[in-house]
Design a protein that fits this description.
The chain is mostly helical and 123 residues long. 60% of the residues lie in helices and 11% in strands. A hairpin with a 2-residue loop joins β2 and β3. The longest helix is centred in the middle third of the chain and has 16 residues. It is elongated, with a radius of gyration of 18 Å.
Amino acid sequence: MIDSLPRREREIFEILCSAGEATAADVRSTMADPPSYSAVRTLLARLEARGLVRHRVEDLAYVYKSVPQPAKVRESALKQMVKTFFDGSAASAATALLGLTKSLSPDEAAALRRAIDEAKERE
């Protein structure tokens, strides 16, 4: 669902995920080339209608927060990263990520072997 969001809605959702909580003004100040304040409020309302965001009132201001969906957010972000930086190749991305670590625990190595075996079975 997150990867199907329009660009601006995704940007706002990602800002809220990073910030934890924010007002519309906070979100707007963080955006690249921000739209009007009322446009940000409209986009936040759309995200809330989709169930991705909720708000509470604090000192007469709406404070927005993303609804916890870590697995969906993680998958969406990884898909975008692999598409953007690795030409869609999950293997290239995994190789690059493994290059960032000095060592793997036995459990991590076993999990990687299982993931590779499962990927081979899907071929």
